[in-house]
Design a protein that fits this description.
It is an enzyme of class 2 (transferase). Pfam families: HEM4, TP_methylase. This is uroporphyrinogen-III C-methyltransferase. Pathway: Porphyrin-containing compound metabolism; siroheme biosynthesis; precorrin-2 from uroporphyrinogen III: step 1/1; Cofactor biosynthesis; adenosylcobalamin biosynthesis; precorrin-2 from uroporphyrinogen III: step 1/1. The protein is of the alpha/beta class. It has four domains: 7-125, Tetrapyrrole methylase, N-terminal domain (Cobalt-precorrin-4 Transmethylase, domain 1, 3-Layer(aba) Sandwich); 129-248, Methyltransferase, Cobalt-precorrin-4 Transmethylase, Domain 2, CATH 3.30.950; 260-299 and 431-513, 3-Layer(aba) Sandwich (Rossmann fold), CATH 3.40.50; 303-430, Rossmann fold, CATH 3.40.50.10090. The protein contains 19 helices and 20 strands. It has helices at 23-31, 43-48, 75-87, 106-115, 128-136, 167-171, 186-195, 225-231, 257-263, 280-289, 309-316, 329-341, 359-366, 381-392, 408-415, 436-443, 455-465, 479-487, 501-513, and strands at 7-12, 34-37, 60-63, 91-96, 119-123, 149-153, 176-180, 203-208, 216-221, 238-242, 270-273, 293-296, 300-303, 323-326, 353-356, 396-402, 419-430, 449-452, 473-476, 494-495. The strands form four sheets. It has a five-stranded parallel β-sheet, sandwiched between helices. Strands 6-7-10-8-9 form a five-stranded mixed β-sheet, covered by helices on one side. Strand 8 (203-208) and strand 9 form a beta hairpin. It starts with 6 loop residues before the first strand and ends with a helix.
Length: 515
């Protein structure tokens, strides 16, 4: 049977900040079989979409070349590879910096796709020229000085068959000129504009590393632009804005280091989140709100139990238990999903009281419209055992747990006269190998904090990274987790006083701003 052809999605990744990709583009990355991406696309985008993690390595990620690191593919080669992958029935994402239609050679790729009879879709992105305006505080249009904008390339193709840029007309253009890829040719085109009548005193702004924490906004005049770039040794990538709007820039742009640090105390910092993949997004969002860039590298993998026999037996015997005890949100999900999948519903729990180790576990119960009858003030096994022991003596409890972990809860309750039945409801396994992106950033000292949210994660990180852990600061969710790190020779720099992810965030912020 002939395999149906796939589809090509031409996706704009936005101007730089990984969070500025569109929701549509992000979701397509999550379901792609092959991703062809430009070297200017921040790999964090791929990381957030799960494409750089161990379990996603069956998907193909193809960088189309970067300067100084091997050969850059020609446009013809790119077209051929896109067509070949889609013709083989794969879902292909062609990920481009900025917007696909702005200096992205999209027309050539669409022509090749159409010629091959393949289906495609174009997903727009925020182009760098517009982002440079928003992030620098320089309006591209202004009712008093500019009612139009021209987006211009500073690097025209040698193979171009139509007329070259008409710099004489651009010199008379009654609006703002926004140059892409114009740094290396700036001395030439600025001189040409002046020779055709553009005022030598026209204000110019250079916006480098737009949307990133190290963004620079530098200002000069058209006549001084070439020498200014040379003397400051400014290199691409950069957007150059030419026009009187530059003089209309806000006096205190919202996106400046000083301004951002007032409201986003981790602005410009990079944090490594090591929770299981399905639990990373919420924490990543919280770090983003604090100004940090987050990389996700799960240290442990959560999976279904090796068999369901003991869980199914416990579900069938629920009426014999006085308490259900959940030591994690994962336990809640796997047990209750299995209960519902068996054809039963929550009425089976009518005879049971429910204990949860902490707020995250309680919140997971609430997703199933269940309330915890007991939650300790201190979110650890010892505190849960101490609070539950006097209530469960002489009674039968079902402890729903991971495949590994401490025995302190079961041992303490058993010693207090409680009948304890334990059921493993999910597997917790170490991730053996980190993504290349994460390892390279860690070894280069580009990761400021590593979050450690359990003892199992602490041990796995030590095995995964070893001495490279010393190149970052470790933040532990509890003294117990910090103790595991310390015993391995990697003391935590920050330890949460409230054993939650919010407590972990607070500990990092407080430690960062302490003397």
């Amino acid at each position: 049977m002939r395999k149906e052809p796939g589809k090509v999605y031409l996706v704009g990744a936005g101007p730089g900040d990984p969070s500025l990709i569109t929701l549509r583009g992000f979701r397509l990355l999550e379901c792609a079989d092959v991703v062809f991406y430009d070297y200017l696309v921040d790999p964090v985008v791929l990381n957030h979409a799960g494409l750089l993690r161990e379990e996603s390595r069956k998907r193909e990620l193809i960088c189309l070349g970067r300067h100084g690191e091997g050969r850059i593919l020609t446009q013809e080669e790119i077209n051929q590879q896109i067509v070949a992958a889609a013709s083989a029935g794969k879902v292909v994402v062609r990920l481009k910096g900025g917007d696909p239609a702005i200096f992205g050679r999209t027309a050539e790729e669409i022509s090749a796709i159409e010629s091959a009879g393949l289906h495609y879709e174009v997903i727009p992105g925020v182009t760098s020229g517009l982002a440079a305006s928003s992030y620098s505080g320089i309006p591209l249009t202004h009712r008093d000085v500019a009612s139009c904008v021209a987006l211009i390339t500073g690097q025209e193709s040698d193979a171009k068959t139509s007329e070259a840029l008409d710099l004489a007309s651009l010199a008379k253009f009654p609006g703002t000129l926004v140059y892409y890829m114009g740094v290396t040719t700036a001395r030439d085109w600025s001189a040409e504009l002046i020779s055709h009548g553009k005022s030598a005193e026209t204000p110019v702004a250079i916006v480098r590393h737009c949307t990133f924490a190290d963004q620079q906004v530098l200002k000069t005049t058209l006549s001084e632009l070439g020498e200014f770039l040379s003397s400051h040794r400014l290199r691409p990538p950069a957007i150059i804005i030419v026009g009187n709007v530059v003089a209309s820039a806000t006096s205190s742009p919202w996106f400046s280091v000083a301004q951002q640090q007032l409201t986003r105390p981790l602005f410009g910092k990079t944090v490594l989140i090591t929770r299981p993949e399905h639990q990373s997004n919420d924490l990543a969002s919280k770090f983003h709100e604090l100004g940090a860039i987050s990389l996700c590298q799960p240290a442990i993998h959560i999976a279904p139990p090796q068999d369901w026999e003991s869980i199914d037996r416990a579900i069938a015997e629920l009426a014999s238990f006085n308490w259900l005890v959940f030591s994690s949100a994962n336990g809640v999900k796997y047990f209750l999903d299995r209960l519902i999948a068996s054809g039963r519903d929550l009425r089976q729990l009518a005879s049971c009281q429910i204990a949860a180790i902490g707020p995250a576990t309680t919140a997971a119960l609430q997703q199933y419209h269940l309330q915890a009858d007991l939650q300790p003030e201190e979110y650890r096994a010892e505190a849960l055992a101490a609070k539950l022991a006097p209530l469960s003596a002489g009674k039968h409890i079902l402890l729903l747990r991971a495949s590994r972990g401490r025995e302190v809860l079961a041992d303490t309750l058993t010693a207090a006269g409680t009948k304890v039945s334990q059921v493993v409801v999910y597997q917790s396994e170490d991730v053996k190998e980190p993504s290349r992106l994460v390892l390279e950033n860690l070894r280069a000292g580009k990761i400021d904090w590593i979050t450690v949210t359990s003892s199992a994660i602490a041990r796995s990180l030590v095995q995964m990274f070893g001495e490279d852990l010393r190149k970052s600061r470790l933040a532990a969710i509890s003294p117990l987790t910090a103790e595991v790190l310390s015993e391995a020779g990697f003391p935590a720099t920050a330890v949460a006083s409230e054993y939650t992810t919010q407590g972990l965030l607070d500990a990092i912020v407080n430690r960062f701003h302490s003397p």
